[in-house]
Amino acid sequence: MNILVTGGAGFIGSHLCEKLLGRGDTVVCLDNFNTYYDPAVKRDNISGAMKHKSFICVEGDIRDKDLVRTVFSKNSIDTVVHLAARAGVRPSIEDPHLYQQVNVEGTVVMLDAAREYGVSRFIMASSSSVYGNNKKVPFAETDNVDFPISPYAATKKACELLAYTYYSLYDMPVTCLRFFTVYGPRQRPDMAIHKFVRLISSGSQVPLFGDGSTKRDYTFITDIIDGIVRSIENCRGYEIYNLGESRTVELRYLISVIEKCLGKTADIQYLPMQPGDVTITYADVHKAGKELGYKPSVAIEDGIRMFTEWYITQIT
Question: Which of 99, 152, 241, 282 is catalytic?
Answer without folding.
Answer: 152
